[in-house]
Amino acid sequence: MVVLAAMKVVTTFHPASSVVDSLKFRLKDEQPSEFLVVAKPNRLDIYALLPEGLRHQHGLDIWGRIRVIRAVPVLSRSSISLLVLTDHPEPELIFLSFTVNGAGSTGITVTKYLSLFEHSARPAEFCHTLLIDPSGGVAVVSAYTGKLKVVVLDQDGGYDRDFDASITELNLLDITFVSTSRDMYTLAMMHIDYQQRLQLLARDLSIEDLQLSPLPSPLLPSLPVPGKLFSTAMDDDGTPTIIYIPSYNGDDDDFEGGILIIGGRKIMLYDFVDVETRVKRESRKKRADKRKTAGDAEANAKEKGVEWKKRKARAAVEWPWAEVTAWCRVDDKERKYLIGDRYGRLALLSINLSGGTTLTLMALGETSASTTLTYLANQIFYNGSHFGSSQLLQITTTPSSALDAPTLPVTSTIPTISPNALNSHVLGRNDDVSGYIVVGMGSYLTELESFNNLAPILDAVLIDTDGSGQNEIVTCSGGRSTGSIKVIRSGADFCEKATVQGLRNVTHIWPLKEMYLAPDYAHVVVSTLQETHVFRFDNASSISSINGDKNTGFITDLPTIAVSNILRRTRNAENKSDYADSRFVIQVVSKGLLLLEYDPGVRQYSRATELWTLEKFADPGKEGLWKGREIVAANINASQVVLALNWGRVVVLTLNVDDKRFIKLRERNFVHNTRDAEISAVSCLPQDPAKPFALNIVVGFWTSKHVEILSLRPTDGSMPTIATTPVFSSAPRSLLLYNFTSGDSKLSNVHLLIGLTDGSIASFVYRNDQLLDQKLVSIGSLPVTMRSCRIGTRQTVLACGSRTAILFWEKERLMYSPLILKDVTAAAELSTSAYPSSIVLANSDGLVFGNVNNFDKLHIRSIPLGLNNPLRVTHIPALRIFAVACRCVTPARIGDLEDIRGSIQVFDDISFNKLGHFNLEQGEEPTSMLSFTTNSGSYLCVAAVTLEDEDTEASKGRIFVLEMTSNALQVNMSVATSYDVKGCPYALTSVNSMIAAAVNSMVVIFKMDTGSGNLIMAKIATWNHNYLVTSLVSRGDIILLGDAISSISMLRLEDNRLHLIARDYGALWPTCVELTSNSTLIGANSEYNLYTFGLQNSGTRQLLERDGNYFLGDLVNKFLPGTLSSQEVSLDAPMQPQQLFFTSAGLIGAIIDLADDLALDLTGLQRNLSNYIQKQDGPNHTKYRTPKNVRGRSDADASSFGFLDGDFLERFLQFVGNPQALKRIMDGQSEPEKLTISADRIQKVLESMQSMH
User: Fold this and answer.
1) What's the Cα-to-Cα distance from 600 to each of 110, 515, 554, 566, 643, rounded to whole Å?
2) Under a CB-based contact definition with an 8 Å cutoff, are residues 428 and 842 in contact?
3) Comparing C-alpha atoms, which of 280, 311, 175 is closest to residue 218?
4) I need a labelling partner for 1092 at 20 to 30 A (CA). Which of 840, 878, 931, 1102 fits?
5) pLDDT tens sequence across 629-682
6) What is the largest CA-CA distance in the chain?
7) From the CB of residue 404, how many other CB atoms can be counted at a distance below 10 Å?
């Protein structure tokens, strides 16, 4: 028996936000002419540089992980060629053409995909890069060890031809062009030789001979570089960088160009060999060649020694900070450079080559840790980051912030000078000093714009902290100097403009105009549980109460049920109804109706008649049937009033304005199960916004918990039921039969919306007197009230319950968007001269006026932690706190030891104020956390490791329990018990009220023993049948473990012993796993694949059967069950969101389960869509999503299975308006590929899918 997992759709909730590269380019004679390209891991964004700032022009998704982007420096009037290098796991060079049309619109197209993949080659360890020579004739790619790919470009910067050039420099660190011509190019290289020495040299590249010169170029022969100046780590941050420095007129005569080396403890400038020395060396080389031919061993050894004679740098300056991660040129003469280190410390390097050579390093300030720097113009530059928010920054001439602190910290052993002393030092130049470090007070950087970044997400929790039913995500994000907690919620933007304090228990709000057709509202009527208040807008900053005389104006000593402006209804010559503007207002209270008229002279409402009581509607002789009744619900439109009375009566009225009398048009009594049906809500909103009357009214009932739509079309005065809803789980509290499309005479977008007392909203499509497509969405647990509202040009509905939501029509479907406000009891639209297109809300403090924007925006709140990098986060509901495990690395200079400290920090779960702090022991780092509660209190179990040597396996760890006590201001933490382990405790989970810990190759089960009055950790079981257990999750008594260098195993804890259920014996290399049920799981591995497994019963034993495999293209660090957005639940829902996942690039994705029949249809759609796009010279989607391993694609996996690409499927919606393309996709390439599902059904399914992420 095989337990099959449902087909899953992988979609993007928040795109990857890490920035890997950037560049600036310009076009000739175009407006705008300058652009910034920002490369994220799988996307390019192009911005125009305008005087007012950056404006997004275009975006392009890239199938592959972007490593480098370069522009071909061929100046064109309207287009430019961009080259993108992707790396994992199959390197590829993508040629793009960016074009600006005459009207200013832009476009970007792919012109060629050049695969660089080779099966037998070893990927480059240090230098995976792309460079283009300054003339735009050649591009060089370093992707594999011992080999360069040389791409010859045509005159427009496009692809012409390519060839491979072998190099003997196997451990290449960096490479750059130093001189170019159409016949011969020279490349400078820095590498580590076989004796672990750093070498700098140049080689000539011949396009004609299709090779690099076997001997170093005379321009720069092999030059040893002091290795002690560079980091021994040699990772992405520790790799040195070489920069070509050309010579110009005005430079010293002996300088003919050189190489600047950055990335070590010193910045060094080495100049090229001058012409005279080159001639001498060439002569010496010829003599040496003769001696070699003659076999003179002694002469050969001497020549070798001369070759390795140390050569002194022309100039050098100390680099007092950490490893360099980014740099960029500032000026066209290439004499000034911005340089940033791994902790975001930025400096400006100036090179002076006249009258001696001087390197001046000026500290500027701190930024987010840079991965890329691009100078734009006017002292403004772009700082792209992986570990923090990317920034648009400006360099100021004087300090702009942090004036009391040094610009950047510099150790006291390195001499520095102040900015004021710089000129005197330069003028009185000392020949023995070739470099200066300038450090002042305060930061010289001003942030102009910030771009939010969630990367890297190491951990996350999904939680409803305020009990509103609206989930939020809390992530451990950032790193280095910009660690942070990110709080993510989805919803509309509300911008508060004004408040009115002191109103309590508000139940309803109605805006009023001076006349029905007036453009703006002038008054607001507010009803509480006991009374009514009336407010008038006096000016932009003033609102006053005009309750007036309760005997001549509004009834204010009772709560108002409904109030509205109305039109004047008259009869024309044809005895048909006409409607004219009027100043009349109708107020409905429980005792009856009141007609008022607005007097513009005194700006007051006065009664036009006395209170119209219910007895006045009785037919002669039937007055008794109306006695004792009162109005329980009411609704008013431009010409009709609908009243709901107790004991199940509905009455429809109209107003005869001439004699100011209310006329009863229809009535109906409802009886359910031989008893009077109590009515909970009524609505008479016209479905056609152009008409002042409704043809249908809606009635909801308390006890029967259903809703009926009544027709007002019959001429006999009856109100028959034309549609009835099913019975709900709770009673309806508010109703709307609403058309979301203005000017829709066909009534195609009419929906019945029902606010229920349990906090849900039910929706139906109303078409041809039928209720279709029932859906439910929850906005909390309190009864829901709804009001129609026009915000800007949109027809929307405001729904208030435990939280507030906006319902609107978009992408041909009804959408729900939470409003990030709590405790809203009533809402209404409002538009005045001071508050155009606004809304007014009531909360526990009073009224709030403001604007709603960005209906479906993702709100990201950042709690900065600086050098405290968050690794793990957990929520402790009993104390209403978040506990965050942090790792703090104190920045050190390259080559110096960094101080590493671990801590547990505690934050309030609403305000995120810091409430407590617990420091781990010296050298300890937290690896995992688990909270639990006993009768004696709340506890936090923490796993920590002591790293003594990074090159060896951890052998010392500790698992300890913190007892947590709190008061209003702080949380105290003390160690209740501790247990030392011989290894790294990578993960913790709870199973059967016990704690399971993954320690190196073991799983250990601990029981919390409180028998003696003290908390004691007792080891009761172990499992030691793996290599390196780094992932651990549980469900009931089942434990799923991920072995980082093997695969996954499923265990059961039974009778205090661990038993193997099943295991996978393949080489999976999992990084993250999660149980989706007792028999199914989902996970991710180090090769950026997703996979699913299901338990298979095979005779007397069980096996793990892989039933899904998919290349995601990003490293997943966490799976969480659930979803962030408010989810509608359809009674026949074919899709259900199940999981969120979080990646190192800042991507948040959603996993959606599909019903079997729909899965088959969408699988066919993905196949046909992939074939269609590939035939249009697009990339091969099937190949891209095929699971990968370290050697590329596996022959065993011809394509992905068990997963569908939701983002790719949604591209189908782009072809809905293109009948020809649509037909080709639906028909496929053959009769068996023809889709049986209709295009309309696909569109509906995909639009529903879009609402889930």
Assistant:
1) 66, 10, 16, 17, 30
2) no
3) 280
4) 931
5) 899 999 999 999 999 999 899 999 998 877 788 999 999 999 887 777 899 999
6) 138
7) 6
Phi, psi dihedrals of residue 1190, rounded to the nearest 5°: -65, -20
Q: Are 257 and 272 within 8 A, CB to CB?
A: yes
Cβ atoms of 67 and 395 closer than 8 Å: no
Q: CA nearest 70: which of 165, 123, 142?
A: 142
- d(Cα 33, Cα 560) in Å, to the nearest integer? 61
The Cα–Cα gap between 263 and 243 comes to 11
The token duo for 400 is 């702009």
DSSP conformation letters of 479-539: -TT-EEEEEEEEEEEEEEEEEEE---SEEEEEEE-SSTT-SS--EEEEEESS-EEEEEEEE
Any residues with CB less than 8 A from the CB of 366 and at least 6 apart, and which? 343, 344, 345, 346, 408, 443, 445, 481
List Cβ neighbours of 866 (8 Å cut-off, separation of 6 or more): 481, 482, 483
- Residue 1136: Cβ within 10 Å count: 15
Q: Do the Cβ atoms of 698 and 735 come closer than 8 Å?
A: yes
- Whole-number Å distance between alpha carbons of 694 and 711: 9
Q: Return the sign of the alpha-carbon dihedral for residues 801, 802, 804, 810.
A: negative
Residues near 1161 by beta carbon (within 8 Å), at least 6 away in sequence: 1235, 1236, 1237, 1242
Q: Which residues contact 338 (CB under 8 A, 6 or more apart)?
A: 327, 328, 330, 346, 347, 348, 349, 364, 373, 375, 381
Phi-psi region of 1059 (alpha: psi -120 to 50; beta: other; left: phi over 0): beta
User: What confidence tens digit (pLDDT) does each residue in 679-699 have?
Assistant: 999 999 998 888 899 999 999
Based on the number of CB atoms within 10 Å of its own CB, is 922 exposed (0-12), middle (13-18) or buried (19 or more)? exposed
Residue written as tokens 């329990």?
961
Looking at 295-420, which runs of residues are DSSP E strands?
315-318, 324-329, 336-341, 345-352, 358-366, 370-377, 380-385, 390-395, 401-406
CB 712 within 8 A of CB 737: no
Element housing 656 (H / E): strand 649-656
In whole angstroms, give the CA distance from residue 925 to residue 1155: 44
List all residues 6 or more positions away from 312 whose beta carbon is below 8 Å from its beta carbon. Answer: none
Decide the pairing of beta strands 8-14 and 1203-1205: parallel
Closest CA to 642 of 699, 707, 705: 699
Q: Which residues contact 1131 (CB under 8 A, 6 or more apart)?
A: 774, 775
Contacts of 146 (CB under 8 A, 6+ apart): 121, 122, 166, 167, 168, 170
* CA 864 to centroid of chain Cα atoms: 17
Q: How confident is the model at residue 1 (pLDDT cuts 50, 70, 90)?
A: very low
Structure tokens at 1089: 């694949």
The overall average pLDDT reported for the chain is: 88
Distance (Å, whole) CA 201 – CA 270:
11
Strands 358-366 and 435-438, sheet pairing = parallel
Helix runs in 263-332, H state only: 275-294, 297-307
Q: Among 731, 732, 735, which residue's Cα sits nearest to residue 752?
A: 735
Q: Give residues with Cβ within 8 angstroms of 931, minimum separation 6.
A: 874, 875, 876, 883, 938, 939, 940, 941
Among the listed residues 414, 389, 393, 407, the one whose alpha carbon sits nearest the alpha carbon of residue 347: 407
- The pLDDT tens digits for 726-777 are 999 999 999 999 998 876 666 778 899 999 999 889 999 998 899 988 888 8
Distance CA 969, CA 570 (A): 67
Per-residue tokens: 858? 């993702």
Distance between CA atoms of 1072 and 1090, rounded to whole angstroms? 10
- What is the rounded (10 degree) CA torsion for 599, 605, 607, 611? 160
